[in-house]
Design a protein that fits this description.
single chain; 197 residues; alpha/beta; Rossmann fold; 2 domains; seven-stranded mixed sheet; two-stranded antiparallel ribbon; globular
C-alpha cells in the first residue's frame, strides 16, 4: 500500500484482513512522508513499513523504485491510501489494471484535492466515496464501488469529511476483495461487479 498520511484506510484494510474479509493481506506499506502515522500503523500490525523520499528525484525513477519494492514483496494489487502523488505512466504500466484508489467524492465529480470542501462549497446535496481503478489521469479511472453520503443543511466541511471517511472505510475493503477474487469484468469503461458465490 502507498500512503502519505494518517493511514485510516490502511487500518480499514488491516482490520478486514484480520477478520478474514479482505481476501488477502497487506504485504508492505510505503510512504513518501517520513512522519506519516500510517507507517506506525503498519509497524504495529507487523507489516513491513518503508519510507522513500521523493524529493529532488525524477518521478519516473522514484516510481520505478516503488515498483521494484512492490514486486519484491509479490504484491498482486497496489492500494493507494491518501497517497498524495500522481503516479507515472511507467508505474501504471508495471501494474496494469492492478492499482486501486479510494477518493472522497462521487467521481467523476470533484476530483483532486479537498474533494469534500469542493462538494460542500458547490452546494451539492449528495456526495460520497468512490473506489476506482487508477489510470494515467487524475481520479479518472474506471469506477468500482461507490457509496453516497448526504450533505445536511447543518453540515460543516469537517463533519461531512468525517462521514465520507466512514464510507471509505466500508467500501474500500469490499472493493479490494472484489479485485483479489476477480469478481468483476470490464465492459468498456464500466466495471461490472459480480455477486459473491
Amino acid at each position: 500500500m502507498l500512503v502519505s498520511g494518517r493511514g485510516s484506510n490502511l487500518q480499514a484494510l488491516i482490520d478486514a484482513a484480520s477478520a478474514g474479509a479482505l481476501g488477502g493481506e497487506v504485504a508492505v506499506v510505503i510512504s513518501n512522508v517520513a512522519s506519516a502515522p500510517a507507517l506506525e500503523r503498519a509497524h504495529e500490525a507487523g507489516i513491513p513499513a518503508l519510507f522513500r523520499d521523493h524529493r529532488e528525484r525524477a518521478r519516473e525513477a522514484f516510481d520505478a523504485e516503488l515498483a521494484e519494492i512492490l514486486h519484491g514483496h509479490a504484491v498482486d494489487l497496489v492500494c493507494l491510501g491518501g497517497y498524495m502523488r500522481l503516479l507515472s505512466p511507467g508505474f501504471i504500466r508495471a501494474f496494469p489494471g492492478r492499482v486501486v484508489n479510494v477518493h472522497p467524492s462521487l467521481l467523476p465529480a470533484f476530483p483532486g484535492r479537498e474533494a469534500q470542501r469542493q462538494a460542500f462549497e458547490h452546494g451539492v446535496k449528495i456526495t460520497g466515496a468512490t473506489v476506482h481503478l487508477v489510470d494515467e489521469g487524475l481520479d479518472s479511472g474506471p469506477i468500482l464501488l461507490q457509496e453516497a453520503v448526504p450533505v445536511f443543511a447543518s453540515d460543516s466541511v469537517e463533519g461531512l469529511s468525517a462521514r465520507i471517511l466512514l464510507a471509505e472505510h466500508r467500501i474500500y475493503p469490499r472493493a479490494v476483495r472484489v479485485l483479489l477474487e476477480g469478481r468483476y469484468r470490464m465492459e468498456g469503461r464500466r466495471v461490472v461487479v459480480e455477486a459473491e458465490a
